[in-house]
Amino acid sequence: MAKITLDNLAHSYLPNPKSMDDFALKELNYDWADGEAYALLGSSGCGKSTLLNIISGLLHPSQGRILFDGKDVTGSPTAERNIAQVFQFPVVYDTMTVRDNLAFPLRNRGVDAAIIAERVQKIGKMIDMENMLDRKARGLTADAKQKISLGRGMVREDVNALLFDEPLTVIDPHMKWELRTQLKKLHHDFGHTMIYVTHDQTEALTFADKVVVMFDGRVVQIGTPEELFEKPAHTFVGYFIGSPGMNVLPATVNGNVAVIDGHEVPLGARYTSRQGKVEIGVRPEYCKLSETQGLPVKIRRIEDVGRHKIVRAAYGAHDINIIANEGDNIGADMTCVTFDPDHVNVYADDWLVSPSGAQGTKGEAA
């Protein structure tokens, strides 16, 4: 297990990058704690896999260093970093049995045969392949082969870190849930440092202690699922986390009031006046339909998803999503929406703004 330090790290796939726009991974300076489980979350092309491959040693960064427990491993090959990596598509030895596939990393390191047998049996049960250990990998389905690949990554107990690059892509939905649960149990039992790349917010939020949200080659927020939901540090986090995502509306802000096209929206704190691009963000969960108060909206449709209703509304050219209780009666006269003031966030140039007198965190515009 290891603390992983990203020191002035950046990467471009171009031989002579001229500006930050030429970098797939823009400058990062972070410490990831020993023994924690992290998820790298973001849309395709945001730099997740680039960062993971730099950590594993498959890619050498254009600038900066990677340190494991303070030791510079930037120039060290993958084999010397003592990590296990599981890729998006299964990598197995077709001519070997499932048992031999799982045992391979341990045999390669000269581990005692009795310990190998015990670990293989345990991992085989974990991936629900205990009854298939003596079958050849050739001919197995793609999801079965990916379970072997996952098992081979988890079979060693002495690794500095376990790295997963969208490992559940080819796994059926029910087994995804089972394997996520097993990965969390593995982390709880052995305390490995784990980094899990995904574009699926459910996978990230259910797996990780801390979620690292990436956008356009940058880390825009690192936080717990609750922090990402309640206080998105960037409007992208608000859009990307949640279903539906956060409503974002252009506004002017002064004191404890935001003004949208002449309509006042109460805020739960005081803010200094801002110039440039200013917006407010509020989750659909903190929006409520009203007959007389709030912003005037036009309801386009109502989606009943069982646990609640999603009201799709519009304020002028801006979409507003509202989550209503399953039992709520939504009448034709409900043509306004109000926001819970304590859950309205203010953004300047896409970054979260701290209230007047509050101490801003990293990434916030204080």
Automatic annotation (TrEMBL):
This protein's UniProt keywords: ATP-binding, Cell membrane, Membrane, Nucleotide-binding, Transport
Family per record: Belongs to the ABC transporter superfamily.
Gene3D superfamilies (alphabetical): 2.40.50.100, Nucleic acid-binding proteins, P-loop containing nucleotide triphosphate hydrolases
Annotated ABC transporter domain residues: 4-241
Any one GO molecular function term: ABC-type ferric iron transporter activity
Descriptive protein name: Carbohydrate ABC transporter ATP-binding protein, CUT1 family
Organism: Puniceibacterium sediminis
One CC-aspect GO term: ATP-binding cassette (ABC) transporter complex, substrate-binding subunit-containing
Classification via PROSITE patterns: ABC_TRANSPORTER_2
Record bears the keyword Cell membrane: yes
